[in-house]
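Incident log, support desk, overnight shift.

02:14 A customer reports that sequence design results differ from what the structure should imply. Their input is reproduced verbatim below. On-call engineer (initials T.W.) acknowledged and began investigating.
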């Protein structure tokens, strides 16, 4: 089971399982001790260039295509395989700072991990 949540939401022990931050940058104003993040695999986060391109007005569909291309690179593929192993062991929560995780890169990543 894969959940999507904001990293700013308090951890839910017994429900979240392994908490994985999927943002390239650490969330502003959030202490690491409070976040309860277990993993931070930067190899599967959108690149700095892709984030900047999107925030400069890139389309959501093209962002998805570019992000999926980044996730097809060897380093990301190896990390995706490792994360799939975690998912096989119990619940996993993908964490992001964006306001709507369901329509973010985290949702794209969750789909790829579910395949």
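02:41 Re-run completed on a clean worker. Output:
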């Amino acid at each position: 089971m894969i959940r999507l949540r904001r990293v700013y939401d308090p951890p839910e022990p017994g429900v979240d399982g392994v908490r994985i931050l999927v943002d390239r940058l650490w969330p502003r104003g959030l202490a690491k001790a409070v976040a309860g993040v277990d993993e931070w695999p930067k190899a599967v986060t959108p690149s700095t260039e892709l984030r900047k391109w999107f925030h400069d007005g890139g389309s959501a569909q093209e962002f998805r295509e570019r992000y999926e291309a980044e996730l097809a690179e060897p380093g990301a593929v190896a990390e995706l395989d490792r994360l799939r192993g975690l998912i096989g062991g119990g619940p996993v929560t993908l964490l992001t700072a964006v306001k709507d995780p369901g329509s973010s890169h985290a949702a794209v990543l969750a789909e790829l991990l579910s395949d």
